[in-house]
Amino acid sequence: MRTFQTLLVLGLLAACGSEAETSTTARTDADTDTDTDTGFDTDTAYVTDSALPPYHPLTIADEGECDPLVPCGGNEVGTWQISGGCVEFDFGLIQSACAGAEVTRTEGRARGEITFESGIVDRWAQARIEADFTLPSECNIFGCAGMEGIITGAAGDMIDDVRCVDTDSGGCDCMARSFQTLDDGEPYTIDGDQIVGSTSGSRWDYCVTGGELRYEHVEGSGELEPGIVDLSKVE
Fold first, then answer.
1. Region 116-133 average pLDDT
2. Could you report the per-residue pLDDT of 218-229, keeping only the tens digit for each?
3. Which segments within the chain are labelled E, that is strand?
4. Distance between CA atoms of 135 and 106, rounded to whole angstroms?
5. Is the N or C terminus of the chain more exposed, i.e. has fewer CB atoms within 10 Å?
6. How many Å apart are CA 127 and CA 181, to the nearest integer?
7. pTM of the predicted structure, to 2 decimals
8. Does residue 97 fall inside a structural domain?
């Protein structure tokens, strides 16, 4: 899965370089927020549904600023719910794609549940990330409405929404938003301080301390799942 920062940078490069198995249960991947450009509104469809875990904030950090996960293993068996996490974002890539561009706000939230039972891991999660950024006039080649289309087209369906408005200096103030859902399961084994997916071959470093579990995707056949995930055990 391509990360949010990769998709955003691809969109900016396109803009600045241009010359002319799904769950059928109550756990749905449809987000019914009525978000605005300035942040998250109350997710009324889920707040009132006690069958779904609540959202928790995600820390969006610059590269190297997430607290590192020190693998320690432990007893992973049981059901765990997402309680937070940290995703690193290389903000320098934005400037390299468009000199003078600046990320002014990031916000993330996630919710989900992971169950380890009888050698099977079942994972379900939703994550939402927003970023506000400014584009200087020299990158605003086709006007802000045109920039929205170029960024969205380059990123495909992995960025759900991009909105840009004109600034007095001829640039754009923009907001990009991505909503991702994970719903999978497979047999697994434990190899030292790693969880190993028997089907996917993926490996996750993990550490259980009391009723808390942290894990991080460190090896797989495709792009790694971003960030370190914090979970609390469901009693």
1. 93
2. 999 888 888 999
3. 56-62, 78-89, 102-117, 120-135, 161-166, 172-191, 194-197, 203-209, 212-219, 228-233
4. 16
5. C
6. 7
7. 0.76
8. yes
Among candidates 212, 216, 221, which has minimal Cα distance to 195? 216
Residue 6 one-letter amino acid: T
Residue 41 domain-assigned? no
**β-strand pairing of 161-166 with 172-191:** antiparallel
Q: How many CA atoms lie within 13 A of 111 on its CB side?
A: 14
For 148-181, the pLDDT digits (tens) are 887 777 666 667 888 999 999 999 999 988 888 8
**Single-letter residue type at 32:** T
Strands 120-135 and 161-166: unpaired
Residue 24 lies in a domain: no
For the chain, how many structural domains are there in total? 1
**Is 51 exposed, middle or buried, given 0-12, 13-18 or 19+ CB atoms closer than 10 A?**
exposed
- Cβ–Cβ under 8 Å, residues 110 and 83: no
The parent domain of residue 141 ranges over: 4-19+53-233
Is 212 contained in some domain? Answer: yes
Task: Give me the count of residues in the chain.
Answer: 235
In single-letter form, the type of residue at position 70 comes to: V
Strands 212-219 and 120-135, by their bridges, are unpaired
